[in-house]
Design brief:
Elements (H helix, E strand, L loop, with lengths): L4 E16 L2 E15 L7 E6 L6 H8 L7 E10 L9 E6 L5 E4 L11 H9 L9 H11 L15 H15 L3 E5 L7 H16 L5 E5 L3 H6 L3 E6 L8 E7 L15 H13 L1
Parallel strand pairs: 3-8, 3-9, 6-7, 7-8
Antiparallel strand pairs: 1-2, 1-4, 4-5, 9-10
Helix pairs in contact: 2-3, 2-4
The chain binds adenosine-5'-triphosphate and magnesium ion.
The site of adenosine-5'-triphosphate has 12 residues, from β2 and α1.
Length: about 280
């Protein structure tokens, strides 16, 4: 198996619950996402959150992003301060997640109608200090890689659903956050674009050791194929609200970081196991 170490905690959900009045959507959600380190490689983290329609994935997504305050519990993120700030020693700081900490790609999100794609992307790129004076180049590069170069001067109403989706993804990538939350990023994409988007998400995850992608998806096979961990959200009989019913470590099973998974027996068995939990 590929050597790896799970190091510092990057994100922690502790006893998260979410209720609207008497209706409990989420309860007792606990998990951690750790920095995965592979010797000699730059390795990010990719986590999939899987569950039946209506189980609470988008609600958990909103809580994780800091946009929705949970009824109980909390989400904290851990940040690394540069060594020079900590006097040569790496310093980690834990704090509650705030809106804006994560790049968020919503399910069926529509861009502002009065801005062209290029204008929306430029606004996003300007939020990223690492792109100062290179915004236009970065936009051009992503537009080519995501196959939307021809629609950069279009308005959102002139885009297909799949093009919208890719614009949303690029917009968040340009902002440069370590965490990227994606709700149903594969819906509405044809098979060629789907392959391109998954390949690009993988590349994004490898672009920085601390890059962490959290993907909510119905497309279990596509999501699992690029993930290192799968969390399954489900409901125990008789209990109010959904909780994590299983965590599958795909690295331990030798099912992470490979591009030959579709034909792998162990991968197919894992997909069947996930479906059984839904
Ligand atoms: N403001 C609200 N008040 C009460 N219930 C709500 C509210 N918003 C969402 N819900 C309920 O929360 C539950 C979970 O919804 P959520 O959108 O998270 O499901 P999901 O797992 O993302 O489903 P899908 O896969 O179809 O997107 C649903 O039963 C929904 O009716
Ligand atoms: Mg949803």
């Amino acid at each position: 198996m590929t050597p790896y170490i799970k190091k510092e905690v990057l994100l922690k959900a502790s006893n998260v619950s979410l209720c609207y009045g008497d209706k409990c959507i989420l309860r007792d959600i606990n998990f951690t996402i750790r920095d995965i380190v592979r010797p000699g490689l730059q390795q990010g983290q990719v986590v999939s959150l899987i569950g039946r329609s209506g189980i609470g994935k988008t609600q958990l997504f909103r809580v994780l992003s800091g946009l929705q305050k949970p009824t109980g519990g909390d989400i904290t993120i851990h940040e690394r301060k540069p060594a020079e700030v900590g006097g040569g020693i790496e310093v980690w700081r834990e704090r509650p997640v705030q809106p804006g900490d994560m790049g968020v790609i919503f399910q069926n999100y529509y861009q502002f109608g009065w801005r062209t794609v290029r204008q929306s992307l430029l606004l996003a790129a300007r939020k990223n200090p690492a792109l100062a004076d290179k915004e236009a180049d970065a936009i051009r590069e992503y537009a080519v890689r995501f196959d939307i170069a021809e629609v950069l001067d279009y308005y959102p109403a002139q885009l297909s659903g799949g093009q919208q989706q890719r614009v949303n993804i690029i917009q968040q990538l340009l902002k440069g956050s370590d965490f990227l939350l994606l709700d149903e990023p594969f819906s509405g994409l044809d098979i060629c674009v789907l392959e391109k988007v998954t390949e690009l998400l993988l590349q994004v995850s490898l672009s920085d050791e601390l890059k962490t992608l959290i993907i909510v998806s119905h497309d279990i096979a596509t999501a699992a194929a690029i993930s290192d961990t799968v969390f399954i959200l489900g409901r125990a009989a008789g209990a109010a609200g959904s909780t994590l019913v299983r965590e599958i470590d795909l690295i331990e099973r030798g099912l992470a970081w490979r591009n030959d998974l579709r034909d792998d027996r162990g991968f197919r068995d894992t997909l069947a196991e996930i479906k059984d939990c839904l």
